[in-house]
């Protein structure tokens, strides 16, 4: 019985695979519940857009007055002249270390330790200030490899694997291939699984990150898990807490203050993980803030994303004997510009190659993913761009040992790359990695009997009848094609576009500081689906004042027009929305 089922499955899968090969190119995925059209990396329509040079500048900085190696900080006397120090007897530097004992709202600095030539380093996060004639003439920050002592006492058992999650902000599957081809081929050569039908749940980071981190929807999180902007970790566990309970050494870090809930909109009540980079990132931004961007690419002459990669690598070197769960989020380069990730390709390959050479990847499940694709700029004015926005990167690399030990689980996940999947599924998958004995063949067989339609570990077969509404993807963000798009006639085109603007103005009604918007241009309107009682349209319009470009999905029933999901903003609002705090309203508001 057992054998015949397996043989049958393999046969059916083989046929499916042939079909997939034949249809690849035409379709991204094609299942009963969801068909996503196929695109190649570079098509005629986007050729010019993706060929534009990266916007991110190179990092340069004035000569450093203090320098450091791994154990000491010293004054670079050769640089002292360029700082106009004419009375060396009044010159000294000051070593302070800092930490966040409770959370990022309470960063505490030590007393100043004076030095004039060299000082030994004894802390992880250090600030140096140098004085001349009692005035601060130089400030700098240094990050050292003094990771908190490893307190977990469960070392690696045969069954457990490390989990290393590397987030790359605003990165679609295809943009990863376009901008980071070396990294992509490093992973491909090692048999990475690339998920084609990974669809975002909501517009920006949080609606996609919270489901991954908690297993709950963003709506639920906002209602139940957050009080006065403080996240209640006792009510809603975050995934790293679960790993910590199981004896993993946990780590969290981002190269930006906005990354991974870092005090952007939600304060974590206490330091979340055993190793935590954010206090450092938080303090350095005071110095390296670039006024033009929300995100700051450079820490002096070093890219912030490299600070992050170095941090991860050092942790990995310390933790060779311990179970490790780490989640890290790059944001400073890829958030702002479609083509800037080119800059990072070489460093990511080098980083992964080092982990590979250290045999670290032999014990580690590596997950490289994003929250959504690029949400603004020229690319989202194209159909391909709007699809890519909805289809973020999700790559998972398993070590050989894992594949051998959990054969059926690996067999399943390999075939789920052509299914419709969401961040909820990653959460479930992480829970399985937490309890590896749930992955034994017998358990997986058991669990495969009653597959869940909406939320499922990727280690069990995902149903082909899944569709966007069954997995909780908002209509507007659904990449599955629903019938043919038909360009609608002039009158309906204008009506749909006008109604989109009416709906946006309704959202702004309570905010008297925002201008009422008027329709200034209609890019396109499509009739997506209809029956006798209702019609679904998508419309892309420009409004004034402010020149905002918006894309929305509208439902027209017999008596009224409604918005489905969120209206997306396709260009930057920059400083036009400074008069409102609410992140959702900022998208639409043009301040009076
Ligand atoms: C940035 O650095 C790269 C590599 O060193 C160089 O090729 C490029 O011309 C530089 N770009 C600018 C704008 O200076
Ligand atoms: C770091 O610099 C200090 C002071 O210059 C020196 O004594 C020490 O040997 C250096 N350490 C390394 C690892 O280079
Ligand atoms: C370490 O081991 C001891 C006894 O073996 C146990 O009581 C304790 O809970 C463990 N600590 C952690 C952090 O796992
Ligand atoms: C989505 O799937 C559910 C459950 O299978 C089904 O009831 C619903 O009709 C489907 N929706 C669409 C739009 O096909
Ligand atoms: C998934 O389905 C279960 C049972 O039908 C339901 O309770 C749950 O709310 C659904 N979750 C999502 C995210 O739609
Ligand atoms: C917004 O920025 C632009 C240019 O960066 C500047 O000219 C303008 O005055 C700013 N507007 C406000 C309201 O700060």
Automatic annotation (TrEMBL):
Alphabetical list of Gene3D superfamilies matching this protein: Alkaline Phosphatase, subunit A (3.40.720.10)
Superkingdom to which the source organism belongs: Eukaryota
CDD domains with a match to the protein in the record: ALP_like
GO cellular component: extracellular space
Pfam families (alphabetical): DUF229
Name by which UniProt lists this protein: Uncharacterized protein LOC118273739
Organism name: Spodoptera frugiperda (Fall armyworm)
